[in-house]
TrEMBL record:
GO terms for biological process: rRNA base methylation; translation. It holds the Pfam family BMT5-like. Its EC number is 6.1.1.20. Residues 531-624 form the FDX-ACB domain. InterPro entries: aa-tRNA-synth_II/BPL/LPL (IPR045864), BMT5-like (IPR019446), Fdx_antiC-bd (IPR005121), Fdx_antiC-bd_sf (IPR036690). GO terms for molecular function: ATP binding; phenylalanine-tRNA ligase activity; rRNA (uridine-N3-)-methyltransferase activity. It is found in: Mitochondrion matrix. This is phenylalanine--tRNA ligase. Belongs to the class-II aminoacyl-tRNA synthetase family. Gene3D superfamilies: Bira Bifunctional Protein, Domain 2, Ferrodoxin-fold anticodon-binding domain. It catalyses: tRNA(Phe) + L-phenylalanine + ATP = L-phenylalanyl-tRNA(Phe) + AMP + diphosphate + H(+). The gene is Fdxacb1. GO terms for cellular component: mitochondrial matrix. SMART domains: FDX-ACB (SM00896).
Length: 624
């Protein structure tokens, strides 16, 4: 392998460079901002420079950290690692000036760093402004290093103490631009890596098999990066697939298994008992001829956004919308919100084998408000078994016991923390206790039991997380002697709880550092590669349209696709009604944060402007 090229910036007396230079397989380029004459007057500097040159290192002077491309021509090899220890503008420069210095440095480093290179920045105690600093300074009084680095496309991937005592011969210098040392006790070394870029998704047309023919449709913008990801394919190493494989392998020890995933279409047509139509993604099939760019744009908006009046129709006693004038149910399609209707259809066709555990799995899609545990798409596995009437309770107990033992076995291979798995009757659950998954399943069918998981030490999920449901039903058109037991599990939530993944969005990242932590067939405790991501808050206030109910679900859906799922919270902070006109004004606070990508203030400002434009266009609000 070629030698690892390391660039050192802002060396005061070159003592750090002299220590690093001895490392095997390392090619050191040591630089400082001052001239050689100025530096040589500092204590021990001349000796360190002589030692570096004797060992073959390159020593450069008058190097500006904000203009690295001027010092290293494009023909030269890029650097694998860049060190900048205790940067400072000099003398009594304040936090603002030093933030500007860091911003210029990070942008400059991006031009001479290899694709998988690292940038190391050591700062004195408290300067960085991250929770790793103890004590942590107030944000406005820190250098805000993670937010500054994000502006140049970097994320903080590691942070650890800077232990000067472990560096042979190292001595700090440069206190207030003098040849004086400064305190490095409690100093931290911040390690930054390149982030994958924020993606700007274009309209996408998806082709699927629908009954006997192939049809195409325009994918809702909020789902463009989540369609056809293949997480559950046989050769997938994604933890969701590994959880499913190990779960079904355990169940196969107690039940004969049959997988029937191959016949499931992502599009569905028909009744949605008990479900408000605003919770599903309605789809308009594309015409046979290729749509123009303008048609795609218009069709995309129509696929993603409907006003509440469009899909919250009058409902009959079964919870199905009564068609209004001009509305034809047979021509309406939507992305499947659950796999349960497919299981029911298979039973009613009489192709179900009694005593066999039938397994259906795949992604399902649901519109939902933005909350920490609400997923507009996740992978569901549905288990169905037909048993004789009177034996359904024993079947449920056997199924639950096998699910529990499988999940506990998976957890023990990953972490020493314990998972408590329980079966709770639906009647014992209060509505506020239900997470988004359980609440939606409750709309689809009458649930008898919830499968709950509780972790001993859980800093990222609800104290009690509902990961599955169980119900029984009589569907056999021929015999009334059979009872069908249904179990539905959220594979994404299971993977998160088992592997310690704190944010559901991480499951969908395209950053290869995620999947690299999960070799084929293995589950491990996930280590985040983006630490302490910065968050930004923006407020938006507007007058709602007269005589119309404000569609909050569409409001959240717009926020999702405009921000690329970087809005993590939407809070109503003020509501006002004009005493004379009766007009109503709402003010919401949006919090932006990315779990895997660099997100800068500029990025968020642009998203906020686009968000204002889109809610005005699609929801008819008047911005204030």
């Amino acid at each position: 392998r070629p030698a690892r090229r390391v660039l050192l910036l802002g060396e005061g007396n070159f003592s750090f460079a002299a220590s690093l230079c001895g490392a095997a397989g390392t090619c050191v380029v040591a630089t400082c901002y001052e001239s050689e004459e100025e530096v040589s007057r500092r204590g021990r500097a001349a000796e360190s420079i002589r030692l570096l040159r004797e060992r073959g290192a390159e020593v450069m002077f008058s190097v500006d950290c904000s203009k690295l491309k001027d010092h290293f021509s494009s023909g030269e090899q890029e650097f694998d690692c860049i060190y900048f220890n205790f940067p400072h503008c000099g003398r009594k420069a304040g936090v603002v000036k030093n933030r500007e210095l860091l911003a210029c440095f990070f942008h400059s480093s991006a031009e001479v760093l290899t694709e998988e290179g690292e940038v190391h920045v050591a700062l004195c105690s408290g300067q960085g402004g991250t929770p790793a600093d103890q004590p942590q300074r107030e944000w406005h009084n820190s250098w805000q290093i993670v937010a500054v680095a994000a502006g140049a496309g970097f994320i903080l991937s590691d942070v650890h103490p800077f232990k000067a005592e472990t560096i042979p011969g190292y001595k700090s210098t440069g206190y207030r631009s003098q040849d004086k040392s400064f305190c490095v006790e409690g100093a931290l070394n911040h390690v930054f890596t390149r982030s994958i870029p924020l993606l700007c998704f274009k309209p996408v047309v998806c082709e699927v098999q629908l009954e006997s023919q192939k049809v195409s449709f325009q994918v809702p913008q909020v789902l463009v990066d989540k369609m056809n990801r293949g997480f559950l394919e046989l050769n997938s190493t994604h933890p969701v697939q590994t959880v499913k494989e190990k779960l079904t392998a355990e169940l196969s020890q107690a039940f004969p298994l049959q997988n029937i995933d191959h016949c499931l279409s992502v599009l569905h047509q028909g009744r949605l008992n008990g479900v408000c139509h605003s919770n599903v993604f309605w789809i308009t099939l594309s015409p046979e001829e290729s749509p123009s760019t303008e048609e795609m744009s218009d069709g995309l908006a129509n696929a993603v956004l409907f006003s509440q009046a469009d899909f919250c129709r009058d409902t009959d006693k079964n919870g199905w919308g009564k068609a209004q004038e001009g509305y034809h149910m047979s021509k309406e399609y939507y992305l499947r919100p659950s796999l349960l209707p497919y299981a029911q259809a298979i039973i009613q066709r009489g192709t179900f084998l009694p005593g066999t555990l039938h397994v259906l799995s795949g992604p399902v899609f649901r519109k939902c408000l933005i909350t920490p545990y609400s997923m507009p798409v996740f992978h569901e596995v549905v288990l169905v078994c037909a048993v004789k009437r009177g034996t359904e309770n024993s079947c449920i107990q056997m199924l639950v016991n096998n699910i529990k033992s499988s999940i506990c076995s998976l957890q023990q291979t990953v972490s020493s923390s314990k998972l408590n798995i329980s079966l709770r009757e639906a009647m014992s659950f209060e509505t506020p206790e239900l997470n988004d998954f359980a609440a939606f399943e409750s709309q689809l069918s009458k649930i008898q039991y919830f499968i709950c998981m509780e972790k001993d030490t859980s800093g990222f999920c609800e104290k009690r997380s509902c990961v599955g449901i169980i119900r029984t039903a009589h569907y056999d058109p021929v015999s009334s002697e059979l009872v069908f037991v249904f179990a539905s599990l959220n594979l994404d939530l299971l993977a998160m709880l088992i592997c310690g993944i704190s944010d559901w969005r991480m499951l969908w990242t395209s950053d290869k550092r995620f999947l690299s932590q999960f070799p084929r067939g293995e589950l491990r405790l996930f280590k985040s590669f983006s630490l302490y991501p910065p968050s930004y808050m923006h407020d938006v206030s507007f007058w709602v349209p007269d005589r119309e109910q404000f569609d909050e679900l569409a409001f959240h859906t717009i926020a999702r696709w405009v921000s690329g799922e970087t809005v993590i919270s939407i809070q109503l902070i003020d509501s006002f009604q004009h005493s004379e006109t009766g007009r109503k004004s709402l003010c919401y606070r949006l919090t932006f944060q990315s779990c895997d990508k660099a997100l800068s203030r500029q990025n968020v400002a642009e998203m906020q402007l686009l968000f204002r434009k889109e809610i005005n266009k699609h929801l008819g609000v008047t911005l204030r």
